[in-house]
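User: quick one, fold this
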Amino acid sequence: MSMDSRIRESFDKQGLMATLGARIESVQKGCVTLSAPIRAEASQQHGFAHAGVTFALGDSAAGYSALTTMPDGAEVLTAEMKINLLAPADGERLIACGEVMKPGRRLVVTRATVETEYADGSRKLVAILQGTMVPLGTETP
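Assistant:
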């Protein structure tokens, strides 16, 4: 199975991403971009996208970027993820770009940026995430 197909098949199993209306924008080795509309039902009290949406999208983009570096049959879990919220997400949709900073057999260090996109196509950086992913199913005998 191709890397792209593996990522898309796994992504399609994520209930939260489906609930958020998230979709895969691109898949490349070490880099995955996701997007999700900013919806009223996922907003906070000031009308901005809730930080939980920003975190979930960034975490998934980072996790899938890690998975692109692993063999068929492997999975990945987040062990740790830090987020810096830089600005309110007040646009039309969120775009999260996850990338692998350092691949490894036991740990994969990732980062993600999350931008808000406005109706005119312009974007603003709203969050930066950095995390550690744990590969599963990649043990060697």
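User: anything notable?
Assistant: Residues 57 and 126 are 12 Å apart (CA to CA).
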